[in-house]
Structure formats: structure tokens, C-alpha cells
Amino acid sequence: MADTIYVLNGPNLNLLGLREPEIYGSDTLDDIAGRMEDRAKELDLDIDLRQSNHEGHLIDWLHEAQARGAKAVILNPGGYTHTSIALHDAVKSITTPVIEVHLSNPHAREDFRHTSYVVRAARGTIAGFGALSYMLALEAAARL
């Protein structure tokens, strides 16, 4: 598992490509996964990409990444970014490096999006580059 990077996606990210494309772009999560898997192969890495609209699943998967010895986790917590102390605590409780990723730039949006509980526990954050944010996070994770 040391060569595996978990890519965890939170609520509503299953709707990428349909939901507010002017903010999130037209790429679907499957489109992003395909590009990530191609690049991961070039880096001799595996991707384990998952999405859930349920906070507890994300927490369980963070714990699983730690237990299985994953190299890193790329986490797009979606709306939980701004609300979930439990997700913050889960990131903080594992030693597996976590990179927070966002398609849009939360600081350029509504005030309530300016606070991230996850960033306080994550290794770093990449935001505002659309689907490219995931690829940049993959490059960073590969070098950890």
C-alpha cells in the first residue's frame, strides 16, 4: 500500500460536470479519476479514488488509509471543509500526509467558505485551479 494514494471526495462531488459548471468546471469525477490514474501509472503509484456524501465514510477511509500504509491522501471535503470538526480530528489523528484540494478558490467565494477546519490539520492545500488542482495535489503527494 505504500505506493497508493487515496483520493477522497466529499458531498456533492458525484455531481461534478453537472453542478454549477461555471464554478466547478465541466469535468466529471470520472474524467478527473482517469487523468489521475494515467499520471499515477507514470509515477509508479496507484490511485484509490472514492466519493461519499456521508461524513462518516470519509472519516473511516482516512483511518483505513493510515491502517493500510497509504503514501498520502488527497482530500476534497466539499462542504464539510467549513463545518466538520470531526473531519479535522480524523486528519489530525493519522500520520499519513493529507493534502486538501478544492476545484474553486474558497477565499474568492462567500464568506462562510473562507474557513477550513481541514486545512488546520492537513499537510497543505491546493485550490482554485479547477480539475488541475487534483493533478497538482497528485504531484505533491508523489514527492512526499
Question: What is shown here, in short?
Answer:
The chain has 144 residues and is an alpha/beta fold. It contains five helices and five strands.
3D structure, described in words:
- This protein has helices at 21-24, 29-42, 55-67, 85-93, 132-142, and strands at residues 4-9, 46-51, 72-76, 98-102, 124-127.
- It has 144 residues and is α/β, with parallel strands linked by helices.
- A five-stranded parallel beta sheet has the order 2-1-3-4-5, with helices on both faces.
- Strand 3, helix 4 (85-93) and strand 4 (98-102) form a beta-alpha-beta unit.
- Helix 2 (29-42) runs parallel beside helix 5 and helix 3 (55-67) runs parallel beside helix 4.
- The longest helix has 14 residues, at 29-42.
- The radius of gyration is 14 Å and the shape is globular.
List strands and helices in order, with pairings.
Layout: E1 4-9, H1 21-24, H2 29-42, E2 46-51, H3 55-67, E3 72-76, H4 85-93, E4 98-102, E5 124-127, H5 132-142
Parallel strand pairs: 1-2, 1-3, 3-4, 4-5
Helix pairs in contact: 2-5, 3-4
The major pleated sheet works out as: 5 strands, parallel
Q: Low-confidence stretches at least 5 residues in length (pLDDT < 50)?
A: none
Helix-strand pattern: EHHEHEHEEH
Shape: globular
Radius of gyration based on Cα positions: 14 Å
Multimerization state: single chain
Separation, N- and C-terminal Cα atoms: 15 Å
Report the strand count: 5
Mean pLDDT: 91
Total of DSSP H or I helical runs spanning 4+ residues: 5
What percentage of the residues does DSSP assign to strands (E)?
Answer: 15-25%
- Please identify the structural class as seen in this structure: alpha/beta
Q: What's the arrangement of strands in the largest beta sheet?
A: 2-1-3-4-5
